[in-house]
Amino acid sequence: MRILKNAVYLFASNVLVRLVGAVAAILVARYLGAKDYGILSVALAFSVVTGYFTDLGLSHTFIRDGTKPGANLGRLLAGFFKIRLLFGLGTAVVSVAVVQSLYPDPGMRRVLYWVVMPTILGAAFQGVGAVYFQVVQKMQYTALIRAVAGLLSAGALFLGMALRWPLDFLAPIYGLAAVAGGLLSLWLVGHRVSFFSGWDRSLLRGLGSFTLGGLVIMLLNQMGPLVLERVTDLVAVGYFAAAFRIPSVLYQIPGVLAEAYYPQLFAHGNRQDEDAHLRLNVLELKMMSALGVMMALPFLLYPAWWIHLLFGPRWADAAPALTILSWMVFMQSINYPLADALTTKGMQSRRTAVLVAVLVVGAAAYAVLGARWGSTGGALAALVVECLSMIGFVLMNPTGWRLLLQGAARNAAVAAAAVFLGFLWVRDWSPFVGMPVLEMGAGLAIVAMDSDIRRRLREMWEKVQERIPRIRREGGGP
């Protein structure tokens, strides 16, 4: 029950922050225009990278040591706090050197400093509370810290737009909002544990293995704006960032579904029950790829309509990038289960090796394709990253091809057919007619072709029917 309660707290806070953050980002893009939004996107991506360097996997070692029997949480937390401050100081010094050397434009530097420097401090402080409450199983406070920090950042952007501030004013208030979230974190923890009760070097043991995997994943997610800024103009960066915002929010939904399967996959993997692991992994892949098809289709067929609706007519040039990036939603829904298959079978090193290789090739793809085709080239590079990840995860898994074919082949065929018919016939219809027709057709085809999905949907419906009379009795209804 405690696990379920904690999961609900974290899910609610993550969904809330992501939705509000997405709305804020879309409105800011409309408000600033492509060039200034490109500058802000580079600063935000840079701040995510620097924020990670205040942790470097330290949270994982704190959770590892803090959950051991007889652990001295006060001593561990004091060491964690001090190490994060040292990491933050080092990150700030290196960041100044990087900004000074890579960004000669004074206006760009100013925005970077106002976003990045406060974020370093805010990330270091927020991490203290988030990880402490995770260890003591009071994740309502972890959720509170994340929600408040995210809402403050989004609120700062809303305030700046309401007061019609230029980017030079928006950047400082956004950065200071991160610090406010960090101070809340320290206040919540400081009422329970002292930050100055010793030092525990065990937190540094095995840190490198956590650092590499987390660093690669973080860089893969932030690589687009950072590389594109070096090879094309800021307007193209803005178009790419705006188009990327949509799939980046959408493919969080399959990720939530993947988390539900993750513990049971680990259980089968720990027992070395290959057949049970494969069956569950196939079911996960079927469900997630079906969800990916349904989410991607509206944006694949009507990208210009969505761009106009969300960002306005000035952003029409972002539509080709959105068409390409929409495929990421489907690809991510496949790659999540393929990657989890490796981790839950004790093959995390293989997963990390794939990600490192993809990071190197992906950076080159962003540089080459972005220089040639701007935002559209950046979108193609993002798709290359997903395709290479899928190939790598399959090749590294002894049952990878079997998993891919059994779990995703039918849904991939439905996606291809829906896109073909959509471009041939439905695309000329009004979006209000075409999107429901495509969604219903694809959904019915998926359900008709797969008995596992039919069975799962039937089980869900039966559970709903069982709960309705109970809800009516408790509510005093008829």
SSE layout:
Blueprint: H1 2-32, H2 34-53, H3 58-66, H4 73-102, H5 106-135, H6 139-162, H7 167-190, H8 207-231, H9 234-250, H10 252-270, H11 274-301, H12 303-311, H13 319-344, H14 348-396, H15 400-424, H16 431-449, H17 451-475
Helix pairs in contact: 1-2, 1-6, 1-9, 2-5, 2-8, 2-9, 3-4, 3-5, 4-5, 5-6, 5-7, 6-7, 8-9, 8-14, 9-13, 9-14, 10-11, 10-13, 11-13, 11-15, 11-16, 12-13, 13-14, 14-15, 15-16
Description:
With 478 residues, the protein is mostly helical. The protein has two domains: 1-205, no CATH class; 207-465, no CATH class. 86% of the residues lie in helices and 0% in strands. The chain has 17 helices and no strands. It has helices spanning 2-32, 34-53, 58-66, 73-102, 106-135, 139-162, 167-190, 207-231, 234-250, 252-270, 274-301, 303-311, 319-344, 348-396, 400-424, 431-449, 451-475. The protein is globular. The protein starts with a helix and ends with a helix.
